[in-house]
Automatic annotation (TrEMBL):
Pfam families: DUF2383. It comes from the Bacteria. It comes from Arcicella rosea. This is DUF2383 domain-containing protein. InterPro entries: DUF2383 (IPR019052), Ferritin-like (IPR012347). Residues 6-65 form the DUF2383 domain.
Length: 75
């Protein structure tokens, strides 16, 4: 796989994680259940951790990581 294709694929994964973070933040703010808040908070942190690793790999390939989301969350 060439570098550009790899960067593009990694950026898609970054975008998926950004979407997950946005969705979990919405879910976190919409619930009052402490257990669910803890779960969503953990999911947010996991997605952020994954993004850091993906961004590192993109930059290692001299690519530019993306930071937006693909999905518009409507509340």
């Amino acid at each position: 796989m060439d570098k550009n294709k790899t960067v593009k694929t990694l950026n898609k994964l970054i975008q998926v994680n950004n979407d997950r973070i946005a969705g979990y933040k919405t879910a976190f703010s919409e619930t009052t259940d402490i257990s669910l808040k803890a779960l969503f908070s953990n999911c947010i942190n996991t997605s952020k951790f994954n993004n850091k690793a993906l961004i590192f790999e993109v930059e290692k390939l001299d690519g530019k990581p993306i930071f937006g989301t693909k999905t518009a969350f409507i509340c």
